Amino acid sequence: MIGERQGKAVREAISLMGMVLKVSPVGEYDRRLVILTRERGKITAFARGAKRPGSSLMAASRPFVFGKFKLYEGRDAYSLASAEVKNYFTEIGEDVEAACYGSYFLEFADYYGRENVEGTELLLLLYQSMRALLKPALPDSLVQLVFELRAMAANGEYTAQPPKRVSDSAVYAWEFILSSSLETLYTFVLKEEVQRELRECVEMNKRRFVDREFKSLGILRELQG
């Protein structure tokens, strides 16, 4: 258990399962976290003293951290008391390209996450997608397409069929991504030409429903030339 608060709490703490999407400094020692949670959707939490040397909250106050967060609820935000970390996804951060993909997924989830709206599907999708980035047999570019389409579908922003005429294999891939369980989502690979067709369709869907650019995706494109 990281950073368990000592003494009698004035308010009763709550436990939320989630993943840290974004971290920003506040003052000299604190951090502001945006966390996608299963129970309450996207929340803002402050990790007091997380930047102090030896702080028990330091390790949990980083992007990609997945686990159970113990929080105290305030009027406009939460205060982080402790965290039981299930996965740090440190391997993603050790690879520049994988880190760009992972950061893009966090940005995308931040875009679609909603406050006080149960976020089980989006959180599980994010978790499974991070795990997929660690599978050598799965191209990261395919993981990106699967994540994007399923995230848009979770928000009701998709078409049941691909938005343009494509091969039967690409149609099947589109339908599989939309209908399969999240646990079995990353269990296939595609031939290069089929993945290209799927990419064109996903990009068309994004242009229709997503109204912003993502910093991490821009960095990724620069890296890939």
Give your account of this protein's structure.
- With 225 residues, this protein is α+β, with helices and mostly antiparallel strands.
- The chain folds into two domains: 14-87, Nucleic acid-binding proteins (OB fold (Dihydrolipoamide Acetyltransferase, E2P)), CATH 2.40.50.140; 92-224, de novo design (two linked rop proteins), CATH 1.20.1440.
- The chain is 40% helix and 20% strand.
- It has helices at 90-93, 96-112, 120-133, 140-154, 168-179, 192-209, 215-224; strands at residues 14-26, 30-37, 41-47, 66-73, 78-87.
- The protein has a five-stranded mixed beta barrel with strand order 1-2-3-5-4.
- Strand 2 (30-37) and strand 3 (41-47) form a beta hairpin.
- The longest helix has 18 residues, at 192-209.
- The radius of gyration is 19 Å and the shape is elongated.
- The model is unreliable at 5-9 (pLDDT under 50).
Sheet with the most strands? 5 strands, mixed, barrel
Low-confidence stretches: 5-9
Oligomerization: single chain
User: First CA to last CA: what distance?
Assistant: 43 Å
Q: C-alpha Rg, in Å?
A: 19 Å
Q: Please state the overall shape, judged from the principal axes of the Cα atoms.
A: elongated
Which fold does the CATH topology of the largest domain refer to? Answer: de novo design (two linked rop proteins)
